[in-house]
Amino acid sequence: MPEVTGGEVVVRTLQAHGVDVVFGLPGVHALAIYDALYAHPEVHHIAVRHEQTAAYMADGYARVTGRPGVCITTTGPGAANTAAAMGTAYFDSVPILNVMSQVASNLVDRDKGALHEPKDQLGLFRAVTKWNARASDIEDIPAVLHEAFRTMLVERPRPTQVEVCTDHLAGKVDSEAVPWVMPSQSLPRRAAEPALVEEAARALASAEAPIIWAGGGVNRAGASEELARLAEVLQAPVVTTVQGLGAIPYDHPLALGYRPYDRTLTPLMERSDLLLAVGTRFAAGQTANWNLKLPARLIHIDIDEREVGKSYPATLGLIGDARLVLGQLLEALDPPQAGRTPDCWAGDVAALRSQVAGNFKAAGSQEMAVLDDIRQAVERDAILVWDQTKPAYWAARCFPVYEPRTFLYPGYGTLGYGFPTALGAKVGMPGRQVICIVGDGGFQYALPELATAAQFGINVTVLLFNDSGYGILKVLQDMDFQSHYYAVDLLNPDFGRLTEAYGLHYVLLKDPDGLGPALRRALESDRTTVIEVPVDFGRPTAWPSPPPRSAGRLRRRGRGRS
From CA 335, how far away is CA 458, in angstroms rounded? Predict the structure, then answer.
C-alpha cells in the first residue's frame, strides 16, 4: 500500500477543500509540509519574508475572494509572529486558516527547552481565533482540518488555527488507513424565523422614515443586491460602517456612506422612527462609544446572535445570513406595503451628501484633492487597501466606493497592514487593479515584501505618503499633549534605491499635484510600482467629525471607558 506523510495529508486535505494557493515561510518543524508542497505544485506557495505578512496576505486574499485564506507557519516564534494579523482577521470577521507545526508530541508543553518550544501555542491563538485544535496523530489530520474549515465558514466567518506536531508531519502511514474527510458541497446558510420576518416586514411597512445601517456582514454574505433592492422598496437611506463600504454603490441615490458620530448623523437618527441594522455590531467609532441615540425602534439582522442587543437593545432580532434574511424581507414586502409616501426622504440624501462633501473640503482641501485624484485614476472595481495613515482616515469617511470587497481597511487599527494585504488581494484577484495607500511608518513594517512582489510577479501600485513620521500621532500630541512631539519623527531610508534594488519601478513626486498622472502610468506597468509622495498634511483647519482621541484626554474629561 502507498504510504503518505503527515505533511502529505495536510496538503491533500487543503486541496480537497479547494485551496490552490497558500502563503508562508518555511521552518525546521514544518519542512514535511513543504516537502509535500514540492510534490504538489498545483498548490501555489507564496514565500514571504516575515510570518506576519503571510497572515496579512491570506487576509487580503480572503477579503477580495470570499474564500478562506491559508497560511503555513512554523513552531513557536514563527507562529507567534502571525498573532497581530490573526487578531485583525478576528476583529474584522475574515476567514483565515493558519496551519502551523508544533514540537514533537512527547515534548509539547513540557518546558524542557526543545528547539522553538512555545508555551501553550494553542492558548496563544485561542484568543484570536474562532476555533483551534491540535491533530493528535496523522490519521486525525483530515478531520481536524475539515472542522477548521467548517467552523471558519459556518455562520460568522473568523480565523481558525490547526497545529500538527513535527513527528506526526514527518511520520508515515498507509494511505488507505487515513480516514480522508471530504468537505460537503456547500455549507447551509441560516434563514430567519418566518414569523419574525413577517413581524419585521409589518414594522418596516408602517415606518414613516426608516433608515438602514449596513455593516461588513452585508459584504461578507454577498448581499449587496438585496440591500439596494430593499432600500429602494422602503425608500430608506443607507448608512454604512467602514467594513460595509461598497455594500451599496456610492452613487446610488439612497447611499449615505460611512457617517461616523457627527453633526450629520445625529439629526438623521432623531428624524427616523425605525432603524434596520444589517450585519453590524455598532462599533465604538461610529456611535461615540455607544452614546449615539438610535431611533425608538431597532430591527437588527445578524448571523451572530450574540451581537443582537449587545450594544443597543433591539425591538426585534432576526438571526441569519444577511443575504437570505434580506431576501425574506423582500418577499414579505412584495408587493410593497403601503403606509408611507415613497419620497419620505426626498431631497434629504442629496442635500446631506452635498453638505458632508463641503465640510470635508473646507476641513482638508489637500487631503480631499489627493482622494479625488486617486478615485479619478482607478477603475470602478479597483481594490484599494488602506494602511493606518492620514489619507485612510479621510477615505473611510468620504471616498467613493462602488463595489463590495473593494475597500480593505483594518478595523482593528493595525499599522503595517496595507502592503502585504494588497499583495494577497492581488493574488486573489490578479485581473483587478490593486492599490495600496500607506504612510512611511506603516510601509516600513513590511518593506522586505518588495522581494516577494518581485519574486512572484505580484503587481500592485503603492502610494507612499511620506511625512517623515507618524503623522496622526503628531496631530494628537499637538491637540492633547501640549505639542510634546516624542517618538513620532522617523529617519527614513531612500525608498527609491530600495525599490529599484528589487528590480521594481519607483516614482518620486515633488508634491501631491502630480499624483493622478503618475498613478495612471503606474497602473499600466507590468510590475509593482512605488510612488512616493512627500506630504505635510498638518493639522486640519477644522474637523468635519471628531478625530480619534487619545486615551489620556478622554480620561481627563471623564469620558473614557476601561
Answer: 49
Residue 139 domain flag: yes
Quick one: average pLDDT of 175-202?
88
Residue 183 DSSP class: P
**331 and 397 part of one domain:** no
Query: Residue 35: in which H helix or E strand, if any?
Result: helix 31-39
The answer to whether residues 500 and 474 belong to one domain is yes
Phi, psi of 503 (to 5 degrees): 80, 20
Structural domain containing residue 528: 364-555
Number of CB atoms found within 10 A of residue 356's CB: 21
Are 213 and 294 in contact by the 8 Å Cβ rule? The answer is no
Tell me the whole-structure pTM to 2 decimals.
0.93
Encode pLDDT of 292-310 as tens digits.
899 999 999 999 999 999 9
Q: What is the 3-state secondary structure (H, E, C) of 188-244?
A: CCCCCCHHHHHHHHHHHHHCCCEEEEECHHHHHHCCHHHHHHHHHHHCCCEEECCCC
The pLDDT value given to residue 185 = 62
Q: Domain check: are 35 and 140 in the same one?
A: yes
Phi, psi of 214 (to 5 degrees): -105, 125
* 12-32 tens-digit pLDDT: 999 999 999 999 999 999 999
